[in-house]
């Protein structure tokens, strides 16, 4: 059984983990901060954007792009640390982001304002091209959450959370999406943040079931990591790519008037070593 360790604690709603260089970058949606942390737990705030959600990715040249949902903008961090408008997305409940090797940026919107209690509506995926133009490339996603592009740049995988599945699309030469299909059904799990793993597999996080799961195309479950709070997203990284980073926090009912859905200080970044053999990892505090 692998050991799960705490790298960062005392945060709010933590999301969007991305390994880059020799550090993990993640977002604290509660604080409106994008944070870098090294493997010794030293943290640095690298950007401040008051947005909820607050998801990030990297362009092929390494620059950070940030979804500022409240502004309806996709921001780009320049080498001097300043933020510039990469594209005007328009008004929507923007959520997660993924970038392919050609610089195509995919941003999804959940379709309704969950935090205000608005009635459910299906969401969509938009494409931002290098010239800053924005167009819809996929509709009817039941609460789109995490997204990832396969290493060959050929496929976009989207967490279709309310359908309990991962949905895949072929990426065409102009960045459009085609050949929509169910990549894997996830049973009773509502997949949230995802990352691509070796051997045509995906890790997904699940808030309600407090776990991360590695699944093969078609639905075979290979590994699980169970913890004591909701798992919002996960990413592979570390020097050899075999460390799974998990952003997690306690999740309460949306109507909790005392603490809100995420009690302050319960956000953590956790790590565990993973490999290609089926196993189960558990942490209960």
What are the salient characteristics of this protein?
single chain; 285 residues; mainly beta; Neuraminidase; 5-stranded mixed beta sheet; 4-stranded antiparallel beta sheet; 0% helix; globular; disordered C terminus; Gluconolaconase
CATH class: Mainly Beta
Low-pLDDT segments, ≥5 res: 276-285
Tell me the helix content: under 10%
- Rounded to the nearest angstrom, the distance between the terminal CA atoms is 16 Å
How do the strands of the widest beta sheet line up side by side?
Answer: 18-19-20-21-25
Q: Please state roughly what percent of the residues sit in beta strands, choosing from under 5%, 5-15%, 15-25%, 25-35%, 35-45% or over 45%.
A: over 45%
Series of secondary-structure elements, N-terminal to C-terminal:
EEEEEEEEEEEEEEEEEEEEEEEEE
What's the helix count?
A: 0
How would a textbook summarize the main sheet?
5 strands, mixed
Structural class: mainly beta
- Based on CA atoms alone, the radius of gyration comes out at 17 Å
- Counting structural domains, the number is 1
Shape: globular
